[in-house]
Amino acid sequence: MGMGQRIPEDPRPVTRSVPAGVGEADIVTELEASRQAYRTALEQLVVYYSRAGNNTKLQWANKELDAVRVMPKYHYIPEVIDKPINLKATTPIPAADDLYYDALDYAKKAGRIRGLKNRNLLRLALGKYNRLIREHETSDKIDDAAFNAGVINEEFKDYSIALVYFQRAYYWDPDTVNPARFRAARILDRNMHRYAEALELYQQAVATEGRRDQNRQWKDFAEKRIRGLQKLEEGES
């Protein structure tokens, strides 16, 4: 291939398998890092060729960089779940409370239609929860909003996203009244088959959220799965 020629498109279909245990959040995180690395490398080439006085290659690099800037990029996972895990749900904020109760109202109405869930109303509720987390990150409702957003995403079968919301709920309030660890463990167990992680989280859930009477059924379920997963581990050893 001579200098200055564009790299031809490979007509062969790309078929790559996804490693076991890798979820959507893992893939999207890698994608975003790759995007940034690609753009940074092009910017460095522009600087290098500019200093070297290589106008031909400078033109190529600038053209490719311009294409990267205008190409469509999608947020496959809501930005709000990229909030740091060390936030604390501590401060009563009236505006956040309004968003939270509006979301609860939408979610409640979503379940009133002949036992079916109204997905449009659930999306409205999810939008309110996301806005609360995005705009009021010190609110004492962020853990509840994250938990309820996780429930909605689980309803939508977006399990990897639901998992991150549940994790944020118990990171932001380790003493949350919601069964966030239980639900996160169940996703790891049933939907992702990441059994070692599920076992550890079930055990944490029993020791924390399992102390609350309102989570008795979750505790019973988790203890049963702990025994099952321990037997699975013993069979593999």
Task: Summarize it.
The protein is mainly α.
Task: Give structural notes.
The protein has 237 residues and is mainly α. It folds into 3 domains: 41 residues; 89 residues, Serine Threonine Protein Phosphatase 5, Tetratricopeptide repeat; 59 residues, no CATH class. Helix 5 packs antiparallel against helix 6. The longest helix is centred in the N-terminal third of the chain and has 29 residues. The protein starts with 23 loop residues before the first helix and ends with a helix. The relative contact order is 0.08. The model has no long low-confidence stretch (mean pLDDT 88).
Features:
single chain; 237 residues; mainly alpha; Serine Threonine Protein Phosphatase 5, Tetratricopeptide repeat; 3 domains; 9 helices; 0% strand
The low-pLDDT segments are none
Q: What fold name stands as the CATH topology of the largest domain?
A: Serine Threonine Protein Phosphatase 5, Tetratricopeptide repeat
Strand content: under 5%
How many domains make up the 3D coordinates?
Answer: 3
- Level of helix content? 55-70%
Overall outline: globular
How far apart, in Å, are the first and last alpha carbons? 54 Å
What's the story with the biggest beta sheet? none
Order of helices and strands: HHHHHHHHH
Q: Which structural class do you get from the secondary structure elements?
A: mainly alpha
Average pLDDT, rounded to a whole number, is: 88
Quickly give the CATH architecture of the largest domain: Alpha Horseshoe
CATH hierarchy class name of the largest domain: Mainly Alpha
Question: Rounded to an integer, what's the Rg over CA atoms?
Answer: 23 Å
Oligomer, anyone? Answer: single chain
Strand tally is 0
Number of helices: 9
